[in-house]
Request: fold
Amino acid sequence: MPKAEIFQDIPLPTSSDTQELWRWLYTELRAAILDGRLKRGARLPSTRSLAQQYGLSRGTVSTAFDQLQAEGYSRTEVGSGTYVASGLPDRTFVARSATRSAPNLPPSQATLSKRAQETLKDIKTLPATHSVGKAFRSYEPAIDLFPVDLWARISARVLRRAPRSLYGQGSTTGYQPLRRAIAEYIGGSRGVRCSPDQVIVTSGAQQALDLLGRLLLDPGDRVWMEDPGYPGACWALRAAGAHIIPVPVDQDGLVVEAARKLSPQAKLVYVTPANQFPLGVTMSADRRMELLEWAVSARAWVVEDEYDAEYRYYGRPVAALQSLDRSGSVIYVGTFTKMLFNALRLGFLVVPERLAGAFEAARSLVDRHPPTLDQAILAEFITEGHFGHHVRRMRQTYSERMTVLREAVRKHLGGLLDLTPTAAGMRAVGWLPARVSDKAAARRAQMLGLELTALSTFTMQHSHKPALILGFAGCNPGELRRGASVLAAVLGNDERS
Reply:
């Protein structure tokens, strides 16, 4: 019978070690097995002797032994004892313990796919929010004014009354009452013509764009993109293998005539017609009809992204492009992130009826279904009229904040920055003198705590005058005035240098 090993070299846990004692013992024994201090086939001491040696209970030692055996590091022979498994390979079955380094192995030569490397090289991620309302953050609504108490009451009521089925598997295309509420709301507010069966609930607009790229494009297909435009859409469609065709934008939106010359047989066009990102222009009626006529003739798709079209400050919101579509060429993308709060990762697609089945199947591959309980809360929020009330309230608030920004720019930034009044949305464009680098100005402003972006960051090929994108919706008036003062110092230094 093999002699039992003695473990004098296993250090006792320190007073700062918070892991359970059985896990500490299991980890040390496993490390000793893997680095060869405990040989294959060696008999381990009895639970009694190990308990005495380290001042542990026998139950603690037994739990560690059971875990080793469950993972195949040891075996127990009735009436004989516990042994290190003899079937462990010499150096290929290696784990790294918490206290010792595993034997050196050659570095892995496995790499990302070429497609992934190409896709990810330009992608920038947004940081987690640690404060709200910072000048001039452009992707954040007025979180400080969101009715959290009302949302909490609705949440409590939904959770209290929800049938057990809502805790089970959800619908792939989304919670039916929410899909119905979305269809009714956008039909009334945006003129979108659809049934609830055409609504696909997604985890935000970005997932919607990812699904569109997967289903509508083959590698190498040409896609018209507004230039400047929304990078997230470009990244999602490029990840699907699209060949991006940057198309210039003027005061009437995407220049369809220029796009036709660049690539007449594109497979898809991505547009933000109600409030072009980031310039803020509205696509004219003539351009809308021209774009729809091209889509029919080219047998192409039009992806209409309405991320904040509800926030229009002059007159009523412009009807959606989808409302003019009679051919089933337009796919409408919406999100609640900009309308309510960022943490609510819910958006939606409105697809032609003939695509509903395909999108349902594709949606199930991504994450099975969107979170049902969050959808149920949002459905109540919409159907009880709170969503419409909140949008109307924010439209007034954002209009007031835009006015504050214009006054602050006039006071602090006269001659340094020319702010274009925006008719809609949550951001404005501040034009700089031609000799100033907008990227350099943005970097200096960011060093002083401002959050703004250079217009050139959003351009691919067609250059514009230098400009800064200034978000105002999520900033209270005091923060907007402070931000304008700080930016004046940045740009004033540029003028003097």
Observations:
- The chain has three domains: 1-105, 147-385, 389-496.
